[in-house]
Amino acid sequence: MASLDFELEKYKFRKFYDKNLSLIQATQDRYISTIEKLIEQLDVGEVTKIEGRIKDKEECIKKFQRKYQGKLEADEKPYRIKDYLSDLIGIRIVCLYEDQISVVSDVLKSHFRIIEVTDKIAAVESTEDLFGYKGLHMDLVPVQAEGASPRLQEFPFEVQIRSLIQDAWSVLDHKIKYKKSIPNNLKRRINVLSALFELADREFKEIRNATMELLQQATADPIGDSLSDSNGNGEIHQAGKGKGINVFNFLRVAGHFFKDFVFEDYKVDNFVQDILKQNRDFERADLHKSLIENLKTVKEYRTQFLLQNPENTFSPYTSIRHCLYKYDRETFGRILSRGAREHFEEWLEDVGGRDHH
After folding, report:
1. Which among 133, 241, 244, 303 is most buried, taking Cβ atoms within 10 Å?
2. Sorted alphabetically, which CDD domains does this protein's record hold (predicted)?
């Protein structure tokens, strides 16, 4: 029963908290599991962290006292402390990019009932006090099934949704004590830092968008100069010209010739950089042509090499290096080590001599 006796209500709240702590913890875990499944099913993009916390009971009492007690008692309105705590359970969701925040928010709004939404991003950006952490706060409660027992009434919970950069800023921001009382010159420095974090957030998003455009372009474009080179009819068109080699179109071409091989991201990046060190104007069409013209020969060499050197390996990267070397010895003279280059040249000379006879 609600009352206006603060000491009594504190006692009752502490008793409620201690009695239900294990249930509150289990409820938090269930909420996190539900949110993880929703985010996975609806493909909202990569989320780096979903974590929860149970608010300390004394902190709960302090928050109630700070925000609600005075007005309730002035209005002579009886209360129970637990009825005014929407963040007893707190869940933090950290996305890679800022524009994922609204997507995650929409997912949660469609599956939970909203108590309150606080847009910390808009609040901070509309004031001169820029040094505050940004993010979206939502107080939610599961939609209660019709006819459910009051004993199974769900606990409300607060969700904080932030980008990775916003989360990093909030961690640092909390370490700065007495922010509103520090001298103006230090405030300005904090504001500069805040702006840099915001710029980083925006730039990461723009880089992601540009990267996706490159990937989509590489996927949509023809593999090389010729759509029928591999069939040997010699028909040529120039669709692939003018497109410098990059990791995306490298994967498009190499994946066509080595379908069963998994090209790891960091190795592809290093390999493409190695190609560009030899020839910064190298194009995707050049890579395609070098493989079309030389891969059959290199495969024959690979077979012979592995028979003679069964302890060695000869990966698709090694095959591509040999194709590039044979394609343009002058430009790609250093794409192979000295020993590998000399061994390959000896084999080519031997094969050429036998073919001639």
Report:
1. 133
2. NT_Rel-Spo_like
Distance from C-alpha of 265 to C-alpha of 231, rounded to nearest angstrom:
30
- Alpha carbon distance 217, 211 (integer Å): 10
Q: Which SS3 state, helix, strand or coil, does residue 136 take? A: strand
Helix, strand or coil, per DSSP, at residue 133: coil
Cα atoms in the 13 Å half-sphere on the side-chain side of 319: 22
Kindly report the number of other CB atoms within 10 A of residue 140's CB atom.
Answer: 24
Task: Specify whether 30 is located in the same domain as 178.
Answer: yes
Same structural domain for residues 58 and 153? yes
CB 198 within 8 A of CB 168: no
Grouped pLDDT means (10 residues each) for the chain, 357 residues: 93 96 94 92 87 95 94 94 93 93 92 87 53 76 62 77 90 72 80 86 90 80 53 41 84 93 91 95 95 96 94 96 96 95 94 55
The model carries a pTM of: 0.68
Lookup: tokens for 337: 């080590």
Phi, psi values for residue 139, rounded to 5°: -95, 120
Domain range for residue 143?
6-205
Token reading at 176: 């700065």
* Tally of domains in the chain: 2
From 173, 205, 237, give the residue that closes a domain.
205
What DSSP element (H or E) covers 48? strand 47-54
